[in-house]
Write a structure and sequence with these properties.
Elements: H1 10-21, E1 25-29, E2 32-38, H2 39-55, E3 63-67, H3 72-83, E4 87-91, H4 97-107, E5 111-114, H5 123-126, E6 132-135, E7 140-141, H6 153-158, E8 162-163, H7 171-176, E9 184-189, E10 199-203, H8 204-214, E11 226-229, H9 236-249, E12 252-255, H10 262-272, E13 276-279, H11 281-297, H12 300-306, H13 309-326, E14 333-336, H14 343-351, E15 356-361, E16 368-372, E17 384-385, E18 390-394, E19 403-408, E20 415-416, H15 420-425, E21 433-442, E22 445-451, E23 456-457, E24 463-464, H16 466-474, E25 479-486, E26 491-497, H17 499-506, H18 510-515, H19 517-529, E27 538-543, H20 558-570
Parallel strand pairs: 1-12, 3-4, 3-5, 5-6, 11-12, 11-13, 13-14, 14-15, 26-27
Antiparallel strand pairs: 1-2, 6-7, 7-8, 9-10, 10-20, 15-16, 16-17, 18-19, 19-21, 21-22, 23-24, 25-26
Helix pairs in contact: 1-2, 1-9, 2-3, 8-9
Length: about 575
C-alpha cells in the first residue's frame, strides 16, 4: 500500500489514515490498556476536542501550547488543536519554569494542555483568568469558576473540569477551520547549544511532506509495524518521524509512560518487540560502553583475537545478534539522530549488522534533510538528501572542500516567530537556509564536519573542528565524554572518565583509579596529539567530575563551558570547573 501523501496537511494525513486503518491499534501506553486507541477512536477523540475548542472561543490562528511527557493524549491534543484551526506550540518537558513562562509569553499562547507532573512549571500562566488550562491525562478543561485555586500538582490532579472528549463532533465547522498546506500550524521553540531559544514556524506542508518523503526512501515502513517511542514528542524529530509518519502508515506507537531508564526500557522492548525505534546517540553509546566493550576487554583471549580484523568482525557479529535480542528480537530500524554518533560505536554497529540508521536535520527543516537506511549506512557519513530537498555546500574550503551546508525545499521553515531580523540572517540572498553545520558532499553522500559556530581559529588562521578531536579522545578506553574548547594559549580538553570501569579492568580500587587520573589524562593527551596536526594539538587536559550539561537532544551546551574557560583565563587560572549558570536548561 502506498503511504505517501498527495495533499500535505496534517488533517488530511489523519483522515486518510482513519479511512484505511480504522480498526487498527494506533497509540497506547505499555501496560495501560485503557490508554489504547484505534485509529477510529483517535479521530473520534480529536474531533470531539477540536469541536470543544471551537465552542470555547478558540479562533483560527490562536496559539495553544502543549507541555507534557510523550503519551497518546499528547498526540490527540496536537491533532485537535490543528483541526480547530489553531497553532500548536509544543514545549520540551526539560525546559525550566522560567523558559516555559518566556515561551508562553513570546508565542502569545491563549491556552495550554499540560500534564499533571509539569503543571507547576506554568503556574504564572494559569493564574491569568483569560488563559484556558487543560489537563493532558484525561483532556479535561479546568475552568477557573470550577477550580479557582490551583497552586500545586495535587490541586491540578484532582481539579474537576469539563471532559472535552464527550463533546459531539461538528465536522462541518472543523472543515471550515481547515488550514491550507502553506499556512502555519506549529511554532516549536528550539533548545540550541548557543543558549538562545527561537520559535521555529512550521507549516502543514513542512511537517506533512517531511513525513511523507521519509516513509519509504531509507526504509519501507509497513502497515502494522510497532514503534517504541522514547523521545519527547515536542521535539520535531520524534514528532515528524515517530508520530506523523507511523500514523500516516497505519502503524502502532507504544509509549513508555515514564522516563526511559534501563530498568524500564529493557522490559518494554521485551514486551513490545519493536520494529522501529528512534533514539539519540547517547542511548546506544551507553549500551556499547557499559555492556559490549567490557565483554571484550575483560576476556583476554577474546580481546587478543579482537585486534585482528577478520576475528573482530566475527565477534562483533556474534555480539550484534545478542544485542538485537535485547531489543526484542524484531528490530528492523533503529534511527539515530539529534547529535553525532561516536565513530567506534558506529563501526561496531556496522560490523555487528545491527539495523541502525543515521539521520540529519534541524527543527528548522521539519526536521529530516538527509539520511541512510540500515542497508545504506557508511561509517563517518550521513547519507543522501531526502527526496524533495536540495543541499549544497557554501563557501567550501579550496583544499578540504568543507563548507556550510545550506538547504532549499518544502521542509524549510517560514522563519522565526516575531524575529524578522534573525530570519533574514539564516537565509542566503538566493533563498537557501543556512544550517550552521559544516560538511562535504561526495558521491551524493553528505558528511558532517562540525558546527560553524564551534569552529576554532588556529594561531595562523587554520580552521580547527573540535568535534573531530573529541572523537579521537572518546575512542580511548575509560573516556565517557569530552569537550574541546579554546584555552589559555591553546586548546583545552575537558574529559570525563569512567572510574568504575577503569578500576574493574585494571584490578584496582576506584580511589586508586581516581588517583591515577592525572597520569592517564597526560598520557591520553600525548597519544591524541600524535594523530593531530601541530596547530590543532591539545595544550591542556582537565578532569570533568560532573556530566556535561546537555540540551534535550543530548548535545553538550558548549557555550556554558566556553564562558567559564574565558572567565578562568581572565583570572589567570588553568583548567575549568562546572559552568556558573546552573539554571540554564536549554
Amino acid at each position: 500500500m502506498k503511504h505517501e501523501l498527495d495533499t500535505f496537511t496534517i488533517r488530511h494525513l489523519l483522515e486518510r489514515s482513519v479511512e484505511r486503518h480504522a480498526q487498527r491499534l494506533a497509540l497506547t501506553v505499555i501496560g495501560n490498556d485503557e490508554s489504547s486507541m484505534t485509529y477510529a477512536e483517535l479521530k473520534r477523540n480529536v474531533d470531539a476536542m477540536a469541536t470543544y475548542l471551537i465552542d470555547s472561543g478558540v479562533d483560527s490562528g490562536d496559539k495553544i501550547a502543549i507541555l507534557g511527557e510523550s503519551q497518546p493524549m499528547w498526540g490527540v491534543a496536537y491533532l485537535a488543536i490543528v483541526s480547530a484551526g489553531a497553532i500548536a506550540v509544543p514545549i520540551l518537558p526539560d525546559f525550566s519554569a522560567r523558559e516555559v513562562e518566556t515561551i508562553l509569553a513570546h508565542s502569545g499562547s491563549k491556552a495550554i494542555v499540560v500534564s499533571t507532573k509539569l503543571f507547576e512549571k506554568m503556574l504564572p500562566f494559569s493564574n491569568d483568568e483569560s488563559h484556558q488550562i487543560m489537563r493532558m491525562e484525561d483532556l479535561f478543561h479546568i475552568p477557573k469558576p470550577i477550580s479557582p485555586s490551583l497552586t500545586t500538582i495535587r490541586d491540578f490532579q484532582h481539579a474537576p473540569g469539563r471532559d472535552m472528549l464527550r463533546t459531539k463532533a461538528d465536522l462541518k465547522r472543523i472543515a471550515e477551520r481547515s488550514r491550507p498546506e502553506d499556512e502555519l500550524v506549529s511554532i516549536i521553540y528550539t533548545s540550541g547549544t548557543t543558549g538562545s531559544s527561537k520559535g521555529v514556524m512550521l507549516t502543514n506542508k513542512n511537517l506533512a511532506s517531511n513525513a511523507s518523503a521519509s516513509v519509504s526512501q531509507f526504509f519501507k515502513i509497513k502497515t502494522g509495524m510497532r514503534f517504541l517511542s522514547i523521545l519527547p514528542m515536542s521535539h520535531s524529530y520524534e514528532f515528524t518521524i515517530g508520530f506523523l509518519l507511523p500514523v500516516m502508515a497505519g502503524c502502532e506507537v507504544h509509549y513508555l509512560g515514564r522516563t526511559p531508564a534501563a530498568s524500564v526500557l529493557l522490559p518494554a522492548m521485551k514486551k513490545v518487540r519493536p520494529n522501529v525505534m528512534l533514539s539519540v546517540p547517547l542511548l546506544i553509546e551507553k549500551i556499547y560502553r557499559s555492556s559490549v566493550a567490557p565483554q571484550i576487554a575483560n576476556n583476554p583471549k577474546l580481546s587478543k583475537l579482537y585486534e585482528k580484523p577478520v576475528f573482530r568482525k566475527f565477534i562483533n557479529r556474534m555480539v550484534g545478534r545478542k544485542l538485537k535480542r535485547t531489543f526484542g528480537g524484531h528490530l528492523k530500524f533503529f534511527g539515530v539522530g539529534g547529535a553525532a554518533l561516536d565513530a567506534d560505536v558506529e563501526k561496531f554497529l556496522k560490523e555487528a549488522k545491527f539495523p541502525y540508521s543515521i539521520g540529519y536535520g534541524l527543527t528548522e527543516t521539519s526536521p529530516l534533510l538527509a539520511g541512510s537506511g540500515p542497508k545504506q549506512t557508511k561509517p563517518g557519513t550521513i547519507g543522501y538528501a531526502v527526496k524533495g530537498i536540495q543541499l549544497r555546500i557554501d563557501e567550501p574550503d579550496p583544499d578540504t572542500h568543507v563548507g556550510e551546508i545550506v538547504a532549499k525545499g518544502p521542509f524549510v521553515m517560514q522563519g522565526y516567530y516575531g524575529n524578522e531580523e534573525l530570519t533574514a540572517e539564516v537565509f542566503t540572498p538566493d533563498g537557501w537556509f543556512k544550517t550552521g553545520d559544516l560538511g562535504i558532499i561526495e558521491h551524493n553522500r553528505l558528511s558532517i564536519k562540525g558546527r560553524r559556530k564551534t569552529m576554532i581559529l588556529g594561531p595562523s588562521g587554520e580552521n580547527i573542528y573540535p568535534e573531530l578531536i573529541e572523537t579521537l579522545i572518546n575512542n580511548h578506553p575509560y573516556v565517557q565524554e569530552s569537550l574541546v574548547i579554546p584555552g589559555d594559549g591553546g586548546l583545552a580538553a575537558m574529559i570525563k572518565l569512567d572510574f568504575e570501569l577503569m578500576a574493574e579492568n585494571l584490578k584496582m580500587s576506584v580511589t586508586d583509579a581516581k588517583d591515577s587520573a592525572a597520569a592517564y589524562l597526560s598520557h591520553l593527551r600525548d597519544e591524541v596529539n600524535k594523530e593531530l596536526s601541530t596547530f590543532s594539538r591539545i595544550r591542556e587536559v582537565s578532569l570533568q567530575d560532573e556530566p556535561f550539561q546537555r540540551t534535550p537532544t543530548m548535545k553538550i551546551k558548549r557555550y556554558l563551558y566556553n564562558i567559564k574557560m574565558s572567565l578562568t583565563s581572565q583570572r589567570g587560572e588553568k583548567g575549568t570547573d562546572e559552568p556558573t549558570d546552573k539554571k540554564d536548561n536549554q
